[in-house]
Amino acid sequence: MTDRIADNINRGFIIKSGERLRCGYTTGSCAAAAAAAAAEMALTGKKVPGARIRLPRGEEALFTVNNQEISPQAARCSVTKDGGDDPDVTHGLEIFADVSVFPGSSGKTGLEITVDGGNGVGRVTKPGLRRPPGEAAINPTPLKMIEESVSGPAKKRGFSGKIKVVISVPGGEETALKTFNPRLGIVGGISILGTTGVVEPMSEKALVDTITTEIEFRKVSDEEKILITPGNFGSDFIREYLGVDITRAVQCSNYIGETLDYIRYSGFKKILLIGHTGKLVKLAAGIMNTHSSYADGRMEVMASHAAMAGAETEAVKKIMSCITTDEAFDIIRNEAFYEDVKKSIMEKAMDHLNFRLKDSCGIEAVMFTSDRSHIMKSAGADELIREFL
Fold this sequence. Notes:
Number of domains: 2
Structural class: alpha/beta
Number of helices: 13
CATH topology of the largest domain: CbiD-like
C-alpha cells in the first residue's frame, strides 16, 4: 500500500459538525522533524530544505525547517507547531532540536542516541507519570519518534558513535502555566506529547489522554479512592462547600464515561463524583458524554421525574420551558414533590453510573446548582466525602 504523504501546509482534513477542518501535528512530531533535520545537518555540514519523518500510524509527513544553524559536528533548527483548525496553547511555538555528533565516542561501536529536554521543556518531579522523576517530559511515543528520526540519517551514512539530542521550546515555561503540567508536578515547561503524531481539530482523544494521565498520577498517592469533577464549578464547590483539597480532584470535563472506564481499568475501589446539575442530571438518562453537542435531555429528565413524583401538567410544562437546571429547580423548590424529584434523579443517575462501572468499584455522587441552594447526594456520599478530608 502506498504511504499517504502529508506536509505541514496540507496534512489532511476531517469533517466534524458539518465543517471541513484542517488537522495539525503534535509537539512530538515537530520535535522529531526538527531532530531529523538537525541530525542531517550535523552529519553533512549542509543545510536542508525540510525534514521528512514517519508518524506512528504509518504515514510520512514533510515539515518546513526554520532557524538553521551549523557548527562543527553540531546543528540546530526548529519546526513551528501548527495545531490546525483547533490549535491548543502550544500552537505557534518553535520546537527546537540541538544535535551533536561524536564519532566513535567512548570506544564504542554502533550507534548510541541520547535525548533530553532543554529550555522550555518540562521536567518531571513526581512519580506516576510516563517518565520517571528527573527526566524531561518527553513521552514515550515522541521519544521513540525522535530516536528513529535521528537514527535514520546516521545509519544511512554508516555513522558509528554517539548522538546527543536536546529539545527546547522558547516560551514553553510560560505556556505550560496554561496546561495541566503544574498540577502534575511537571516544572519548567511544556510536555512533548502525541501518540499518533497528528492533532485532529477539537480532538476528544487529546483531552481524554490528558485525563487518563492525571488518573495515573493520582493512583501513585492513593490506590484506593479518587475524586473527579467535570470542571471549575465542581472545583469551587469542592473547596468552598465541602472543604476538600481541590488539588486532589481530577477534572474530567464532559468525558464522564471515558473517565469511569479508565478508573475501573486502573483498579480504584472508590469514586467520588461531584458536579453541577447542568451536567450531572444528564446521567439520569444514561448520557455519559455531557457535552451539549452530543445530547441534552436535562429538562426531559427533570420533567419526567417531576411527573413521576406527582407534578401536575402545568408544572411539567414550566420545567420543559426552562433553559437551565437552576431555573427548573427553583420552580419546584416549594412543591411537595421537590425532595422526591431530587431523590429520584440521583437514584437513576447512580443506576447508570454503576452499570457503566459494572459494579467493579463503588461510586458516590453529589450534584449542586450554581447558588448551592439545591444539592443532591447519593446515599453514601457524606461518608466518602469524610475520607477525603
